[in-house]
Amino acid sequence: MAICIAAFIIIAADVIIGIVFTPLAPPLQFAAGVILTAGINVLKVRMLDRAVAKTVDMEDGRAANYIRLQYLVRYFLTGAVLVVAALTPFINLPGAALGVLTWPAAAYALKFFMKKG
């Protein structure tokens, strides 16, 4: 349930970013950047959910190392997406950078929605 809410928040935030910032850049290139990062952000939410579920049964030290590794993998993915956006002429780098910012926004919004419900 939480993954669905987080994915919805990411996609909704990306749609709003697309509507607000599209006049500042070529629309298709901007949308490509936002869509690329939205997909990666949904993947990162899924990875985080699986990592937390997997560490529940681990001992403390091993679980902490596993979570740290997953953290590095998620941020490596973010860096890789930004490098791809910078090197690919069809993907707008500011669009991708704004799309990356929806990950923390979704995390805070999810925390807010989980308290309400």
What report would you give on this structure?
By secondary structure, the protein is mainly α. It has one domain. About 85% of the residues lie in helices and about 0% in strands. It has five helices and no strands. Helix 1 crosses helix 5 and helix 3 runs antiparallel to helix 4 (about 95-100). The radius of gyration is 16 Å and the shape is flat. The chain starts with a helix and ends with a helix. About 25% of the residues are buried. The model has no long low-confidence stretch (mean pLDDT about 80).
Summarize this, please?
This protein is mainly alpha-helical and 117 residues long.
Which class of secondary structure composition applies to the elements? mainly alpha
Gap from first CA to last CA: 12 Å
Shape: flat
Portion in helices = over 70%
How many strands, which pairing sense, and closed or not: the largest β-sheet? none
List keywords for this structure.
flat; 5 helices; 117 residues; 85% helix; mainly alpha
